[in-house]
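Mods, move this if it's the wrong board.
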Amino acid sequence: MKNAVHFGAGNIGRGFIGKLLSDADVQVTFADVNAPLVDQISHKQEYKVKVVGANCQIDTVSHVTAVNSASDDVIDRIVHTDLVTTAVGPNVLDIIAKTIAAGITKRFESGNEKPLNIIACENMVRGTTHLKGEVYKYLDESLHSKTDELIGFVDSAVDRIVPPAEAANDDPLEVTVESFSEWIVDESQFKGEVPNIEGMEKTNNLMAFVERKLFTLNTGHCITAYLGCLKGHKTIREAIEDPEIYFDVKQAMFESGEVLIQRYQFDRELHAAYINKILGRFANPYLVDEVDRVGRQPLRKLGANDRLIKPLLGTIEYGTENGALLKGVAAACKYRNDTDPQAVELQKAIQDQGIKKALAHYTGLDENSVEIQKIEKLYQQL
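Not the wrong board. Structure tokens:
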């Protein structure tokens, strides 16, 4: 594989997927609507990534260019590319679906019948399957069977903390990322040859890894943020270094972990080690990650399939402990941020309807359930 079109030239696009592809000698074309960013990448054709873990190193990513994702250029690139990836955020997937459909249509019209694989690298469950549904809306029905045959829509689970960072040395392209990264793909969904890219792990049991990340990193991250906000901490590192918060977050991750152990037969000791690794990542001294960034969009995070309620539902299913998860939900209900429309909406709903009704509305939990009664009590205590 030689070429990839990657939608999204933001920090995650450049610092994570773009870097892994470039490191594997794939020529990456970024597609983005940010015209100055596109101009800078296509002019310099390289950028720096600061990788921070126990040590700090700066890598140069080269052999990259960029096109405007609203232009015909990106459609022409899809005609000839070997891989399409995305890191645009769940809401933008629906917008780029039309462009991807136009690229597939033109690819077939030009006679290119080589298999093409598309991987959405988003913080959502089965994001590529969702994208596929949107792409098919814009494809002529006569092309559906050919697309089924030649275009692979490959679901993935991605994990790397890439906080917004002020560009060092006035370099707007430089991005800071943690040394840990995980990109796991569903091997069964590829068409043609499965690409061999270092850092891209293949599995036939993707949901186990999707839920492991959601129930551990995402659950722990947002509970750290919400408890941190309540105690006046500004960053995730500050919050997790607070012993009381550390205890609650670790307990919540063990509670969600018990669901994974029951559901997927994860090894208990290995999962405990994974939890400790995640807690270490939260305390990374090189990453300045603000609690307000991690806590934003609380309504999405309180959804039935998201990081707080999904593991909680698992504890109900298996009859396991959930006290710290309930505390995390209560803390989310306390989250205030006047610049975040979802936080404003949540506070208004709690004020107008009361905590129990508001929670039942946004989480799908029964208003009279034991869980909502416990959350209400914790909410009043926090």
